[in-house]
Design brief:
Blueprint: E1 6-13, E2 23-30, E3 33-40, H1 42-52, E4 56-59, H2 69-78, E5 84-87, H3 97-103, H4 113-125, E6 130-145, H5 156-185, E7 189-196, E8 199-207, E9 219-220, E10 224-240, E11 248-254, E12 258-265, E13 270-277, H6 281-289, E14 293-298, H7 306-315, E15 318-320, H8 328-335, H9 343-369, H10 376-384, H11 389-400, H12 420-523, E16 527-532, H13 537-546, E17 554-557, H14 565-573, E18 578-581, H15 587-595, E19 600-602, E20 607-609, E21 612-615, H16 617-658
Parallel strand pairs: 1-4, 4-5, 11-14, 14-15, 16-17, 17-18, 18-19
Antiparallel strand pairs: 1-2, 2-3, 5-6, 6-8, 6-10, 7-8, 9-10, 11-12, 12-13, 16-21, 20-21
Helix pairs in contact: 8-9, 9-10, 10-11, 14-15
Length: 659
């Protein structure tokens, strides 16, 4: 729970990379008041943090607190829950702290650590900076033995059964808590159990939620220990601090049996690209909500499908559609930047990126005209919803202006001889403080000079050693280089040989499959069928190049969804004998097959042999005859409808003529 406390920290003496333990200046911002602490070591700061449990710890450089990523992770693990580490100068591309302060109307002495710490705290309260995230939104819980079973004796089995039984009992307790947590919040988890004699050796649970949300705490007793840890990221992630609520997003949706979802931030950063088969509407909404609040829900087709409109209404977002059909080639070109695994991801990416491109110029004008201390995402949200840029800026400024209550300035001191002693005392205190700072700086300069001299001596020693190595090993290095060139050439040739062998094996396997199909064809047991993985232009072209598409070929569409009249025309032009499907095909494509007199057969039993297949000729013939009968009925029905339409038109003209 947030309590409005922000810690600003700046290094005052030493360095996190030096041997001497560094000291820090700390500014605590609470209820608009700022309290300063000087020359504080890190272990005392941690005690203060656990006491106050602040919302943010603001610094201008995170590596003032830790020497490297591993040390930073160790530090973050000691912080209270819900306390975030903020780097106010930005993420990968940082801005100087002095410039940031000037942009937000602040001024400070950059050589005074207390004032720098205060500036960091105030900037964080204004929403400036980025949250430093080193952990995924995944938590691992491990329930295991708290002690070794040892070599054992007469009672070893009884002791093992006791410990393993205790682990099993604790695991069930943890699983019960996670089951209720998943039911109440929707967060999922997986489990991995290692069974042992009389119970469990260990139980591991992976929960798809941040550690502070998971209601399981670490514990240890005589027999069982429970450890709870967040999963570390591969690299540091910087999350913008502005808008600590839900971020605004642009969502692209490709509806269907398999739903494609693409989510972009309003800066064009890809947050999610995925395709999920058999997902419900509620699950789609929950997945989208995890990444923020959609400002725009986009589709790549026109008119907008009802499923996309339903998702838009769930978030009260603005709908975006291209106003016409987007060609497959254009979709590939648009989505290629981020990459995709299938057509559903490609279509959803196309929708999201095309809508972002439509708003990009407006977003650029917002970024140029809006003050930097405002939440730009919220300004863009109001613009998307129909406000002008000036109206949006005015709304956000009135909604989210943060006022920091500062200490009142002292009243002017009147010239009075009775206050002279007090003024002298204050001046002496100020002078003592300045002398102390000067002494600290002189000590620091002396340390730096000493370190500089030591490093120069070390450099001289290393240069001498380097010259000796160069003189004694020149021939050896040259020989090793030639050997390396030879080894590289051998490795390259081995790779080419392995690649050739792999291609040869593939060709042999393909020939073997073709022989199997051919045997069935000769015996009259099967008719060859060519398998196309998906109903797309690329998949059809791939099969055509690999096996060829000839007249009277029988085709099996492994995934018939996603196609249309254009893709259907490729098979019609090839004059295939029939198309076999296992699930429903889009209506527009089915109409094209009817018009092209190509039978589309569903539910026919196909015997697969790798990329090829076979079907019983008798069953195929019966299915085609049945389809032809249906097609004939359809043609007759169309003729009757056409005749009825002509008759109605004729009657209408007769009535107008008689009138």
């Amino acid at each position: 729970m947030q309590n409005g406390v922000i810690y600003g920290i700046d290094i005052a003496k030493g360095s996190s990379r030096a041997q001497e333990v560094p000291k820090y200046a700390v500014a605590v911002l609470k209820d608009g008041e700022i309290n300063h602490y000087t020359m504080v070591r890190l272990h005392r700061i941690l005690r203060m943090l656990n006491r106050d449990r602040p919302d943010h710890i603001a610094v201008d450089n995170i590596f003032e607190l830790a020497t490297n990523k591993r040390a930073l992770i160790h530090l973050l693990e000691k912080l209270p829950d819900n306390t975030k580490l903020v780097q106010v100068t930005g993420g990968v591309h940082q801005k100087p702290l002095l410039r940031l302060a000037q942009e937000h109307g602040l001024s400070f002495n950059q050589f005074d650590p207390n004032q720098e710490a205060e500036a960091c705290a105030i900037l964080a309260s204004l929403g400036v900076g980025v949250e430093v995230s080193l952990f995924e939104d995944i938590t691992r819980i491990k329930v295991s033995r708290a002690r070794s079973l040892g070599r054992g004796g007469w009672s070893q089995n009884r002791y093992r059964r006791k410990v393993h039984g205790a682990v099993k009992e604790k695991s069930r307790e943890v699983e019960s808590i996670l089951r209720k947590f998943s039911r109440d919040t929707g967060y999922t988890y997986t489990e991995k159990i290692t069974s042992g004699f009389g119970g469990y050796v260990r139980a591991e649970y992976t929960v798809n939620a941040r550690r502070e949300r998971v209601p399981v705490k670490p514990s240890t007793n005589a027999d069982v220990q429970v450890t709870v840890k967040s999963v570390e990221r591969d690299k540091i992630q910087y999350i913008p601090l502005k808008g600590q609520g839900r971020k605004y997003t642009i969502v692209g949706i490709d509806p269907g049996t398999t739903v494609g979802i693409a989510i972009l931030s309003l800066e064009g950063e890809l947050l999610l690209s995925d395709s999920i088969r058999g997902i419900s509407h509620d699950e789609v909404v929950r997945t989208i909500a995890e990444y923020g609040k959609p400002a725009v829900v986009a589709t790549d087709v026109y008119p907008t499908p009802s499923a996309v409109e339903k998702i838009r209404r769930s978030f009260n977002a603005v709908i975006w559609s291209p106003g016409g059909e987007i060609r497959a080639e254009d979709k590939i070109a648009i989505a290629r930047k981020f990459g995709y695994s299938n057509d559903h991801e490609r279509d959803s990416l196309t929708a999201a990126l095309a809508s972002y491109k439509a708003y990009k110029n407006v977003f650029s004008r917002v970024e140029k005209r809006a003050p930097k201390y405002l939440d730009l995402d919220r300004v863009k949200f109001h613009v998307i919803n129909g406000d002008s840029i000036d109206e949006a800026i005015e709304k956000v400024a009135s909604e989210s202006r943060i006022k920091v209550k500062m200490k009142p300035e002292p009243e002017p001191v009147k010239e009075d001889l009775s206050d002279a002693d007090g003024q002298v005392k204050k001046l002496r205190e100020t002078l003592a403080q300045r002398n102390s700072q000067i002494k600290q700086l002189k000590d620091y300069v002396s340390e730096l000079k000493y370190e500089s001299v030591q490093k120069e001596k070390q450099i001289e020693k290393l240069e001498l050693r380097l010259n000796k190595v160069r003189n004694s090993t020149y021939k050896q290095v040259r020989k090793e280089k030639e050997l390396q060139i030879r080894d590289n050439e051998i490795a390259r040739l081995n790779k080419e040989l392995a690649k050739t062998k792999k291609s040869l094996r593939s060709q042999r396997n393909q020939n073997k499959r073709l022989k199997q199909i051919r045997k069935k064809e000769v015996k009259g047991e099967g008719l060859p069928v060519k398998v196309i993985s998906s109903f797309t232009r690329e998949a059809i072209q791939h099969t055509k190049e690999l096996y060829g598409l000839r007249e009277n070929d029988v085709i099996y569409l492994e995934n018939p969804s996603g196609g249309g009249p254009i893709t259907a025309s490729l098979l019609i032009e090839a004059k295939v004998k029939a198309v076999i499907i296992s699930e429903d095909i889009p209506y527009a494509a089915l109409e094209s097959f009817y018009d092209g007199n190509v039978p589309v057969l569903k539910g026919l039993k196909v015997h697969r042999v790798g990329d090829l297949a076979s079907v019983d000729p008798g069953i195929l013939g019966e299915a085609i005859d049945k389809w032809q009968e249906g097609a004939e009925e359809r043609r007759k029905e169309k003729e009757r409808e056409q005749f009825q339409s002509i008759l109605e038109e004729y009657r209408s003209e007769r009535r107008r003529g008689l009138a």
